[in-house]
Design goal:
Order of helices and strands: EHEEHEHEEHEEHEEEHEEHEHHEHHH
Strand order of the largest sheet: 3-2-1-4-5-7-12
Strand content: 15-25%
Number of domains: 2
CATH architecture of the largest domain: 3-Layer(aba) Sandwich
Number of strands: 15
Oligomer: single chain
Largest sheet: 7 strands, parallel
Radius of gyration: 20 Å
Length: 332
Amino acid sequence: MRVLLTGGTGTISRAVVSRVLAQGHHLTVVNRGNREPLPDGVEHLVADVRDETSLREALGDREFDAVVQFLAFTPADVERDLGVFGGRVGQYTLISSCSTYLKPLPHHVVTEESPQGNPYSRYARDKIACEAVLRSSDADVPWTIVRPSHTYGERTIPTNFHFGNPWAAWQRALDGKPVVVHGDGESLWTFTWNEDFAVGLVGLLGNEGALGRAVHITSDESITWNRAFRTVAGVIGAGEPELVHVPSDTLGALREDLAAALLGDKASTIVFDNTLVKSLVPEFDARVTWADGVARAWEWMQAHPGSRRPDPAYDAFCDDVIAQVRGWAPAR
């Protein structure tokens, strides 16, 4: 197949690049060329994918069996793509998000047919609108929608919330500082290793059974946030972490972005039913557990100390929240 990816250097797309190449497909990646170099064997086009003129000039008269769009965040992005790719692509795959599912959830087990709607997250609402553009389009663009959920890889250890630097939470644990956990920490969550996700996604490309459908791709492992935090602390050598539980509503009232991250996503107990992707892609099997993934990421981060950056703003926020919860002021 001739496959086009937008981006190609993010947590998910980097793993997809590797999987597409390993499967022997011809891969083209289009991005602005500002980040790390792409692997050998990739045709690299430089363009701003959000600028239609720039994108058209870079693509020329190329046609593709499959396009994977990682960088569509608004309906206008999808409308532009339909114009650019109409009649020249066998399958257009929109990367959406599992955050689009209705919050609060009517049931903790979620399938692709579960209702959508998220009053807390503008990002999720925009993704829902992107999906709607595809569903209502009469353009000559066969489509598939893919919904990831908290996908991570070797370069980061994710957490429940952060200000652009997930490592900050784990540095607190290493420093013996208390760590903020939303709610009582007993809600269930799913973390998906990016290479596992890539097997599912690439298996959907050129797959007629995936056309006109939405498919989520996640791990089958659901763990509590308390367990997630304790697992990380154990792997990085922080011992038993001091977990301070703060109501999600309280955190969301303090910062709008936390309302989206928690009330609109991670504070809900959710278990994903992956029956559909497994039926379409028999080789898909999310094998990397949270403990295994954290260990892999920690090994990489130890070899790349620059990835472990401090975040004074996050630290100060956590100290203040904990002080309010406990009713005492932190030592200065």
